[in-house]
Amino acid sequence: MKVDLKKLGIVINVRKNTLIAKSIQPPRVGEEVFDAQGNYIGRITSIFGPVNAPYFRVKMERERRVGGYLFRGDKYGR
């Protein structure tokens, strides 16, 4: 499956299976999140903070080490 990645945010904190990130692009609750290699990380569960610079919470599929940028993906070939 091919995933077209677009930069979404940068990781701020990871605890167990929850990740907090600072948004670069406006996020949407329920949106799928990927790492730089296109691996699925999880889904956005909430958005919080100031409107012009929001943060978002991701419920990760499993505990893992994640750092750097996060990406949104548009899937093709389902």
Polypeptide structure, described:
This protein has 78 residues and is mainly β. Helices cover 0% and strands 59% of the residues. It is built from no helices and six strands. A six-stranded antiparallel barrel has the order 1-2-5-4-3-6.
Short account of what is shown:
This protein has 78 residues and is an all-beta fold. It contains no helices and 6 strands. The chain is globular.
User: In sequence order, what are the helices and strands, one letter per element?
Assistant: EEEEEE
Spatial extent as radius of gyration: 12 Å
Instruction: Bin the helical content.
Output: under 10%
Give the termini separation. 7 Å
Number of helices: 0
SSE-based structural type: mainly beta
The number of distinct β-strands equals: 6
Strand order of the largest sheet: 1-2-5-4-3-6
Gross morphology: globular
**Sheet with the most strands, sense and barrel status:** 6 strands, antiparallel, barrel
Strand content: over 45%
Poorly predicted residue ranges: none
Nearest-integer average pLDDT: 88
Characteristic terms for this protein:
six-stranded antiparallel β-barrel, single chain, mainly beta, 59% strand, 0% helix, 78 residues
What's the topology here?
Blueprint (H helix, E strand, L loop, with lengths): L1 E14 L2 E6 L8 E3 L5 E9 L6 E6 L8 E8 L2
Antiparallel strand pairs: 1-2, 1-6, 2-5, 3-4, 3-6, 4-5
